[in-house]
What we know:
The protein is an alpha/beta fold. Helices cover 28% and strands 22% of the residues. D-xylitol-5-phosphate (DX5) binds at residues 6, 8-9, 29, 31, 62, 134, 136-141, 170-173, 188-192.
Amino acid sequence: MKVSASFLSSKNIPKDLLALDKTDVDFIHVDIMDGKFVPNKTMPFSEMKNIYKYTSKRLEVHLMVSDPIDYIKKYAELNTECIIIHVEIDDPTKSLELIKKYSIKAGLAIKPNTPISDLVPYLPYIDEILVMSVEPGEGGQSFIEKSEDRINEVRDLLNEYNIKALINVDGGINDTTVKKCYNCDIVTSGSFVVCSNDFQEKISSLR
Ligand code: DX5
Ligand code: ZN
């Protein structure tokens, strides 16, 4: 199981990114919010792009935005492994095709109350599914219990359609809730890691 670390709840982003760089975490999960798809808004790209100064890890960019096109063009320039858009936006195919043009992995996130079957039309385009185990928009929330069933439903769907996409989970992941994510290939954890005083110990406990 791979681990991705979100710094959304970080109080000191440069310091925490430098500390994460010394761990064996696999990816840095970059949460982007536009104030429309979710109420909160993150810093502009002109500031966010400076992340490269503090981390050599590959990025997973989670776009919680209504119109991802401009964000994709910008975040594709960074050391980006995967760009994840939401299935709930208008015309996800347009964004998924643009991500693939950059030879970056395309991910599709799904909110806790969206039917898993909504993923079906996009399965041929995607390399990763991000199952949201909290309502997107802020760090530090509790894992929604039904997410275990939803992850398993996604695994069944991928098997049924013979699709190789990875399953990732995001929201409220800690050393207890991770046990419900046995069907995931990647787990994303924010406050459990970055609000602790031993990042490596927390990351190891997730593995
Ligand atoms: C929630 C974000 C998550 C969040 C994870 O909207 O997409 O990535 O930061 O943080 P924790 O682990 O604190 O729920
Ligand atoms: Zn996220």
